[in-house]
Amino acid sequence: MAYTFEQYRQSADYIKEKIGDFIPKVAMVLGSGLGFLGDVVETPTAIPYGDIPHFKASTAPGHKGRLVFGTLAGQKVAVMQGRMHHYEGYGYDEVSYAVRVLRLLGCDTLIVTNAAGCVRTDWQAGDLMLITDQIKLFSESPLRGSNLPEFGVRFPDVSHLYTPRLQDTARKAAAELSIPLREGVYFYCYGPQYETPAEVRAARILGGDAVGMSTAPEAIVAGHCGMEVLGFTLLSNMAAGILDQPLSEQEVLDAAEAAKDKFSRLVLSCLQKL
User: For residue range 16-75, what is the model confidence (pLDDT) as tens digits?
Assistant: First the structure.
């Protein structure tokens, strides 16, 4: 469906009634198994997605489906504990709807995380990757349809969709914490099926280093409405065809649990440096 600016404003107004004069600066979209950061927000106000006008439900495993407002690492944040995916039956404007609402509430920065398959054969599952760019070639844009000039221009430039300044912040934080940080390109696929070995080989040839089912739509919309974007991928498993074993969602959740300490320390350090 095509949302109007009034619908975005209605959602923002409802949230304002719940959070009062609190103005978040950093929006955080936390993916599969990574929503625990929302549980350590100080003086939190949690709002279920289902209570917010025009919001959709998050049905993916490990996604709580609520917005948490408060303070984290000294920053005023709005944490999405769970996201919407295209494979759940949502259009890309629905998948990215919350980003525009959070922009109206005051967020000027988006930190987005995901768990994804590792395409690189010289990396390993459990590594963290700083997203430097993305590939979303084979599906429509979340900006398709009438442009809403209140958010941005009709034809936005995405040469630096993932903000170079924030990438430098992440590199510095990782070095200070002695956390190895890969850098690479996130290759978006629709899901919900995992990619075939042939699709993984194609992603590698096209320049992808990780392959997953989220993140790209939200990043595009955030860039369109003038937000800076910082993205991280937990390489939760080796992508199809690299190892002679089947893929499963439990593997993704187990990897997220195993990496939560280093992941949280890295993200919190980046927040402190914003």
Answer: 999 999 999 999 998 766 678 888 999 999 999 999 999 998 777 666 889 999 999 999
- List of long-range contacts for 270-273, beta carbons under 8 Å, 24+ apart: 270/111, 270/166, 270/169, 270/170, 270/173, 270/230, 271/26, 271/72, 271/73, 271/74, 271/75, 271/77, 271/111, 272/73, 272/74, 272/75, 273/169, 273/172, 273/173
Tell me whether residue 132 is exposed, middle or buried, using C-beta atoms within 10 angstroms of its C-beta: 0 to 12, 13 to 18, 19 or more: middle
Give the CA radius of gyration of the chain: 17
Domain that holds residue 240: 5-273
Domain count of the fold of the chain: 1
78 three-state secondary structure: strand
Query: Which CATH number characterizes residue 100's domain?
Result: 3.40.50.1580
* Prediction pTM value: 0.95
Q: Directed axis angle between helix 216-224 and helix 97-105, to 10°?
A: 40
